[in-house]
Amino acid sequence: MYQIEELEKWKDKPEKIVYRYSASGDKWICLILKKGCVAGEHYHKGLVASKNPEINIILKGKVEYYLKDLKSGKTEKVIIEAPKIIKINPFVYHEIKAIEETLFLEPFDEEAVKKDRFGLDD
Q1: What domain range includes position 39?
Q2: What is the DSSP letter of 49?
């Protein structure tokens, strides 16, 4: 009638905990960002479907996104409070700072991301 499964803890650091889950080909990560944690610090070129656009589902908390359009050079900071979804287009560098402890979900395919995750120095 139902199943209960443990989430696989993928990364465990003092500032963030990341769980991952896969079912029927769909892959997700669940992130818990502690207050003050900075995450992201990358952009995508839109080479894989799961990152074109990148989708973050903010379930609990408040974060500040720093966004930089690498084509136009335009920058913006936006504060997002749960529950919200942000979709980040290719070639937009993004950093996330947790203003409060934050819980969010993101579609995530580790192999695909290896092909389409870049830092500013790449």
Answers
A1: 8-115
A2: G
Query: Is position 3 within any domain?
Result: no
Instruction: Kindly compute the dihedral angle of the four CA atoms of residues 43, 75, 30, 21, in this order, to the nearest 10 degrees.
Output: -30
In the chain, which stretches have pLDDT less than 70? none
Asked, for residue 122, whether it belongs to a domain, the answer is no
Q: What is the pLDDT of residue 83?
A: 97
User: For residue 117, what pLDDT is reported?
Assistant: 93
Q: Where are the alpha helices (DSSP H) in 1-122?
A: 110-115
Q: Give the Cα-Cα-Cα angle 9, 12, 15 (nearest 5 degrees).
A: 135
- CATH number where 29 lies: 2.60.120.10
Give pLDDT, residue 110: 80
Look up tokens 């996104």; give the residue: 65
> Three-state DSSP class for 42?
strand
For residue 94, what pLDDT is reported? Answer: 97
